Amino acid sequence: MRRWPLAACLLLTACCGVAETPRVPDPKDNGPIVDVHCHLFNAKDLPVAGFLRAQGVPGFLALLVDRIIQGQTDGTRSAAAVKDRTQPSDEEIDRVLEAVQVELEGESAVRVEAETREQAAERAELVEALAGGQGVARVGPRGTWGVIRRHARWAILLTAGTQEIARRMLGAYPDVALFTPCLMDMEHWFNDSVGRSFEDQIAVAEQAMTLAPGRIHPFLAYDPERARWVRAAKLDPLDLVRKALSKGFVGIKVYPPLGYRPTRNTNDPMAGPRGKAWDDELEALFAFCEAEEVPIGAHCEDPGAASSPAAGKYADPRGWDTVLAKHCKLRLNLMHFGGDTDLIERGASSWAWHIGQLVQKYPHVYADIGAHESLFDECQRADFLGGVEKIRQAVPAIGDHLMYGSDWHMIVRHPTEQRFLVDALEHMRHVERRRFAGGAALDYLGLLPGGKNRARLRTFYETKGWRLPSWWVEPGTP
Prior knowledge:
By secondary structure, the protein is an alpha/beta fold.
């Protein structure tokens, strides 16, 4: 996934309509398909504008998304009505953008004067971009309107309920047998507030599982800063983990770019006096997950949603070597495979190569290709795949440890959303297809015969009265 400088935005196409998702040819050749990296969060679950700016998204686009979310959720504002927020029509998107434009142009001078210089610049850029033309027929600078419309579509999606978003995901990718959406917990890291408690986010994720029994099993977000506060209240942060695992959750998501390392925070000046507590809580988590075979997914790409300019480096995969040396059986997915652009630009010095070295040393280290745009860019695809092949030649095991992951619904902002799965299966030819599509993920998740996660899910299904899902592989099944 790349940064979003305006120059790159201008090169994207203007088309953004929701097309029918192409089906996977010869599904039996793939085995069960698992999307090991996806999301169901909505605008209530994280500070969206701060999240986007931290990812390097241009400020005017972050402002646009923020204004659309406010317009669709704030009853005191005048906003264009959208019948289905998960799949707005082109006409509805036009009306929403027009409402934002009218709002920006009609706001009082007092509010404008109160803005910082940066906010004023973002506002001016957004006003100029929106004035470039409404509707597909009036495209401003090449591609800018397409980028604006796709971000508008995503912003409208974020105002839908979690159940609606889950239905959209299930319907958009009918060939995926299992989704493991990751919850988000960024409440303690950005200045913006969130709209519902973390406990409520967990509750709605539990409800989403009932929409398609066996097809959705989430990852619980784990934040060592939240854990520090829980411990200060004389409670055990791992109790929430245990409870989630008993209710159908299958893993833990950590996000180091928020501002912490996997370990050795104690002497980090950025952590300050909190560092020792973070190390203690993370060590307790890793020990528990290793013993109970609970997989961990860790963001591993820079940029990410870093809480400060320097925090992106905490996603460096080399930070996990110390953890894995102590917990060598820990199941770890280094999400985004270090970043496709990083691999193309830095080659053997890239994070992807460092991940390959970890795969060579530790048996349960994996990586996914979530939101790797280079797969769908003819100019960069060969460079990315060539980089993957060089790693595979040096570390053959990487071919069995790369997994499919989409980073949906983040990819709704990209023109390739509907083809992500089909194109990924087609182009990732340097790895064994059945392993990449889902076999490696079932292994990483501990859902093959003999795994503790599998045993927990069987008990969960029995309690719920659910049948075993289609991806459930019995012993002896080829």
